[in-house]
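Hi team,

Below is the intake form for Sigma-70 family RNA polymerase sigma factor from Peteryoungia ipomoeae. Please confirm the fields before the structure is written into the shared record.

FORM ID: S-0412
PROTEIN: Sigma-70 family RNA polymerase sigma factor
ORGANISM: Peteryoungia ipomoeae
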Amino acid sequence: MLITAQSDDLGQALSGCASGDRMALRRIFDQESGRLVSIAQRIVRRRDLAEEVVQESFIRIWTHAHQYQPDRGSARGWIYAIVRNRALNLIRDGKREHSMEEIESFRESEETEEIMIAWQRLDRNTRLYECLGALEERKRNGILMAYVGGYSHGEIAGKLQLPLGTAKSWIRRGLMALRECMA
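The structure came back. Fields below:
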């Protein structure tokens, strides 16, 4: 229930940001910035770039808080999606390239543990937990790796030892099944 209370606080803080309350943005920063930098760093692989991503994300959170719609998802999910998308955009724009050494250096046990922690933290009484639980384990892990861990489809294919097209299809089909289940 702690996660639900924090999500409610984040929703209220986003509402405050939409109203121009700078302290609301500060509350979001104080509560989430450490985890957001960690997520961004996992994607861009450098602390300095991760901090830049989070800084840009907080500007976007401030300027776009009015677009958050509680009926479409959690405040935390909305905030984390902004950070994830900013980090991926940084990579796509060519400002950060992964080397084969970096891709191969992912630590199997850490990423599995991180995904399982995210899965276990999810409130078991939510529709999202129920819908994720209905997915085949490998598809669920692929989705969690993409949206919790910030891994690219290529990285997920490598970790799950699948062809890239198969990994993309599984994630796409898993997301479609999630959307259908959540509707």
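SUMMARY LINE: The domain at 1-97 is CATH 1.10.1740.10 (Rna Polymerase Sigma Factor; Chain: A).

Thanks, M.
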